[in-house]
Predict the 3D structure of the following.
Amino acid sequence: MSNDSERGAAAVEFAILLPLLLMLVLGTIEFGRAYNAQITLTNAARDGVRVMAIGNDPAGAKTAAKNAAASVSTSILATDITLSTNACSTGAQVTLTIKYNLSTITGIAGPFPMTGKGVMLCGG
C-alpha cells in the first residue's frame, strides 16, 4: 500500500511543478528570441548607417538595413526605418533607427517593441 501512495504523491508533486517548469523553459526560449532579435536589429542598423555614412545614399541605407534585418522579419516596412538626415556632409553624424514589434511564440506576453540604432560620422 505504501508504494501506491508514494506513486500518487509523486504524481501530485509533478502536476504541481509541471506548469512552473514549462513557464521557465518557455520564458528562456522567448528571452533568447528577443535577445537575438535585438542584436540582429542593432547590426542591421549599423549596416544601413554605414551605407549612408560612406555612400550618402538614403535609399540604399534603408535597403541595406532592411536586408540585414530579414532574419528577424521580412515584413519590416521602409517607414519603420528612419534616418536622422537625408544628406550626409563630411564630419556630421548620421543615425539610422529600425523599429519592430516582436510577437511571442507563446502569446502569453507581448508584442515587445524593439529598436535597433546605428550611429556613424559621415564621410568614413
Observations:
- The chain is about 50% helix and 20% strand.
- The CA atoms of residues 30 and 107 lie 10 Å apart.
